[in-house]
Amino acid sequence: MLYFFLSYARGDEDALVQRLYEDLSAEVRLIAGLPRDERVGFVDRTILLGERWPQRLVEALSTCRSFLALMTPRYFQSEACGQEWQIFADRTARFDQQNGVDSSLLKPLMWIPARPGRIHPVASPLQYSSHSLGDLYQRLGVRQLMRLQRHSDDYRTFLFELANQIVSSVEEHPLPDVQRSIDLRSVVSAFHRPAGAGQLTADVDQFAPMLVHFIVAASHRDEMSTVRQRVNTYGDRALAWAPYGPPFPDPVVDYAREIAADHSYRSTVVDLTELARRAEQAARYNQIMVLIVDAWLTRLPEQRQSLTAHATAALRDGGTTAVLIPSSRDDIETREHWQSLSRACREIFDELASDDELYRSNILTHRAFQEELPEVLEVARNRVFSRGAVHRPPGPATDSRPPRIDGPWRAEGDDTAAEDGRDDER
């Protein structure tokens, strides 16, 4: 039996989260009187990118008896975490309603101390509190209890208290398994519910993930066959380009979207024809734009001209733009022509190509792509925060009328309405 499901935003100190999972599992086994090799919990850190909605994750969400959420700012931005939360929240809501109880099987844990307003409204009424640690847990969070040697005893106390609560609540409220099949892709995140779906959306805009526009600068198989021999990595349209296949046959932009979602970003995907419009949108609304470029596109005159024009416009608009150029080490033809292909790309992107943080060329493997894209997104996000325009929505008391300048000669109490009227009649 899975006593608990540990939900967290991957990238929030995975190794430390794994240690918490193992320590808590040991305490739960001890209190429940189970053998030391009995599996009592689930954490999804071993799930690989590209593994689409793995069955073991669905099974764990369908059968776990309690749900622990490690609260961080990124946790509430993650759509995947919000989907996990929603599935378990639906299970407990049905159970509590049918049995007339408050099972308290969903327990949000303070991983780091929360700043005012940074706890999502759906989690605020459910927070776990430690009776023995008082405000120490609220002030430090689980992470600091684990990291600071002087709080090692407090951490052990916290573990024992939490494990006791898990075992007692699970045994007192036997939550039934989900009998129907769950399609995670159809589940709406508890943190990103649309207006009218029972969510206080006016209060949660701050938790919305940053938007990334992925622009695929590639072409289709027929056109690419005019400039190169190896075209098995291309499809019927630009978005189907799969430079790492085989053994990774899916379009590279699919992996990019998974990586972005895994690091708490929303994303859109378009081809090169949409670059100018997306560049303007990204600059205006403080969003990120990532060009995923096939270097062979530079051998197509019309495509090269279009890419040059759009790249110039993107830089002129002042948005945060990154360029990634995959080039598989298994593609012998690309390796033979790489020097000229690389030079052509640098000529097109000009000053952007000198930015080593946002211009990543010659990404040789799928693994390297997985490692470099998160770095690029982090750099881009920091630049948006430091350089982006500030948009403050008007409050209820804001006067939306345009300002009117009457001039320094206007005396108090003067009525200019008549004069305005006369001006209008002239």
UniProtKB/TrEMBL annotation:
Residues 388-426 are annotated as: Disordered. This is FxsC C-terminal domain-containing protein. Residues 401-426 have a biased composition (Basic and acidic residues). It comes from Micromonospora chokoriensis. Residues 1-159 form the TIR domain. InterPro entries: FxsC_C (IPR026367), FxsC_N (IPR047603), TIR_dom (IPR000157), Toll_tir_struct_dom_sf (IPR035897). It comes from the Bacteria. PROSITE patterns: TIR.
